[in-house]
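EI: anyone free to look at a 448-residue chain?
SC: sure, send it
EI:
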Amino acid sequence: EADMHGVKIVFIRHAVFLEKNAVYTYTKKDEAQNAEFTRGSGFKDAHILNILHQKAVLEYALFHRACPCIIHCQDAATALLSVFAHEISRYKKLCKKTGFLTTIHNAGPGYHHHFSSLDEAAYYTKLSSDILKKGLCGERVEPFLLASFYSKLSTVSPWYAEELLDPQYSYSDGLSPLFAQQNVHIQGILNGIEYDKYDPKNTSQSCLSQSFNPLLGKLKGKYKIREALLEKIAEGISIEAGVDSVEQFGSIDITVENPVFFSYHGRIVWQKGLDVLAEAIPLVLTKNAQAYFITIGQGQPELEDTHIALAHQFPGRYVYLRGYERALTRECLAASDFLVLPSIFEPCGLEDFIGQIFASLPIAHAVGGLQKIDHGETGFLYEDNTGQGIAEALLSAMHLFNTDRELLNAMIIKASYSVKHNYTWQSIVEEYIAFYQNIVNPQSKLLT
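SC: here you go
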C-alpha cells in the first residue's frame, strides 16, 4: 500500500504481473525471447490478468469487511467487477449498498477484452451461462455489455457517448446496436488534463529544455527547443534506457526560409489514422517545400515500417523516431507549429490539449472527443479523413501560416488559455461529483 495526497493506493503483487516488461503489450525484449510474443500486441494471458485484478479488489474489500459506496471501474479490463460483486455469493452482502460506474475509454476493435465464446467466458469467470448470455454480441461475451446490467456507464467525452449509442456507428465492433436496442445510457464526461504538469513556463514540470509562455504569445523559448532538437536529429538520436527506447529513421535538413513543422506523437496504430497520414505526407511534401514532418511513437510493426519507408523516401524532410521517451516526445511536440491528429475514431484525445499547451495548434479529424477543438479558434477540424483530405487541411494551415501570422498567434494564445481555464481536472471533476451523487445508494454517505 501507498499514500498519495491522502489517497490510499493498493498494489496487487502477483507473478503474472511482475513478469511483464510493459503494462499493456509485449516489448521488443519479449519478442526476442519468444517468437509467439509479437511486439505491440496484447498479452496472451490478458483474461487471467483481468480476472485476478478484479477479484483481488473484491477480496481486499472482503478482508477489510468494508466496501466503498462507489467503485469506479476503468475500461473493459475491469468491466466485470460489478458483475462479480452482484452475482458471486461471497461478495453480494458486502457490496449490496455499493454503486458501480464503468467508464469506457475505448470501445473500438481490439479494446473489448471480450471472450470468444460462452464456454471461454465461463472457464475464466466461473459465472453461469444465464448470466453470461446477457453479454452476448454474436458468439462473443462482451464485458462492457455485461456491465451495463450491473453498473452505470460513462465514457470520456459527450461526443463519443453519442457515437456509441448510434446503432449505425461503425467502430464499436457491434456494441452500438446492442446499446441502442437495450436503451443503455452512457454519460459523456470529458477527460481533463493537469495543465501544471505540462506548463511550458516551468521546465521542471514540462521536461522541456527552454521555457516559453503561449498565454502571452511569448514563444522565443519554443523556437530554441526546435533548434536544439534539430541538432539532436542531425547527430542521430538513439536511446536505450530501461523500458524507454528510441531509434531514428530519416533526417531534417532545412533548405528554405520559414519552414513549417508538423508533428505526430502517439501510438502508431490504425485507430490513430497513421495509414492515411502516410498517404497525406508525400502529397504535402511534394506540394510545398516549406513542410517538414516529425513523427514519434511505436505500435503496429507494419505501420512502423510504412513510416520508416517514408523517412527513406523523403530524406531531409521527414524523420520518424520509433519508440518513446517522455522528454524527447514533448520536445518534438513543442518544436512543431502544428500537431496532426488523423484518428479514425477518438474517444477523447489528450494530445490536442498538450499541443495547445505547447503552442502547436492541432489539426484534427472531426470525430469523437477531438470535436472539443474550436475550429478556427483553438485549432482546426476537417471531415475528409483520406490522404487527400488530410493534405488539404495541412496545406490550408500552411497558407494561414504564410498569410496571417497575427491570426495564428491569436489562436495560439486562445488555445492555451482554453485548456488552462476550461479543461483542467479541477474544472471537470465537478461533473464526476454530480454523477457520483446520482449513483450512490441513498443509504450510503458520499464523501465530499
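EI: Residues 444-448 have pLDDT under 50 and may be disordered.
SC: 👍
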